[in-house]
Amino acid sequence: MKNGKVSYPYQKVTDFFVQAMQDDDIPPWEKPWISNGTSTHRWNGKEYRGLNWLMTLSTGREGPWLTRKMINAAGGRIKKGEKSIPVVFWKISGYKVKDEKGAETDEVRKSFTMFYYRVWSLEQTTVPKSKYPKWLKEARAKNKPKKNGKALAKSVKESTMAFVDYIKREGIEVKEGSDRAFYRPADDSITIPSESQYKSSVEYVRTRSHETVHSTGTPGRCARFDYDARINPFGSEDYSKEELVAEIGAAMLDAQFGLRRPKVDRNSAAYIKSWAKRLKDDPKLIVSAAQRAQKAVDYILDRKFDEQEPTNGSD
Ligand SMILES: [Zn+2]
What we know:
Largest sheet: 3 strands, antiparallel
Shape: globular
Number of helices: 9
Strand content: 5-15%
Number of domains: 1
Structural class: alpha+beta
Bound molecules: zinc ion
């Protein structure tokens, strides 16, 4: 950060989220997930990840998403008055580390610079149906919104299987039946009320996913706890950052299994106000939280990804 200012893309992204939160009166990470299988996808069928996943999801629009160039190439145009959203990518460059005297050493480190470009949702364009890619037609036919109980039960079951797989792999202890939910780093345990204490299985899973994401913060896993988590961290600045990671991560995790987010019972206006302020005060917060959340989810699901989004809007 130079002169206490963050670079323009960070400000742009933060403004987008703050505006979206105020317009809809719901934080982006609590938006109901649209289960048509395309809402967070690019025109080539690949799904956005991390921040871009959250950004596209938070619009509540169906995807896929296209740049102006892609829209033109597909013989369409942007409908009058339709607004784009920013999505980001990173450019990596190497620099030589300097020693105490300011002379360059042979040690090369990577630096990441964030840029953004603009995309529109397909529904905001006039791209003709004949130009729709094959994957899109297939995804729409396959992913009709799942409303029946059977599909929901299947999603819950798959999410539970992934959870069990993770806690076994990591040797995490799970204590059920308490009336509180929390992760305790001191003995690497997740405490959670039992499923019957919740109004629905989706709400139970939501809480479980939240605590599961917290459990990835330890030094041996994603090493996110930059505070001593054994000291009561509630209310601290770092703790609120970690809360954001857990909320976004839980949303990502639940979406993996097609679970629509339940509405949370709380004073939404106060919640929005407090997060909008935090985001404004630290324009890097949402970017870093979304990245950390994605990393946590990949860790839980034991997946490896090439972290980079394409370096331009052409694919
Ligand atoms: Zn939490």
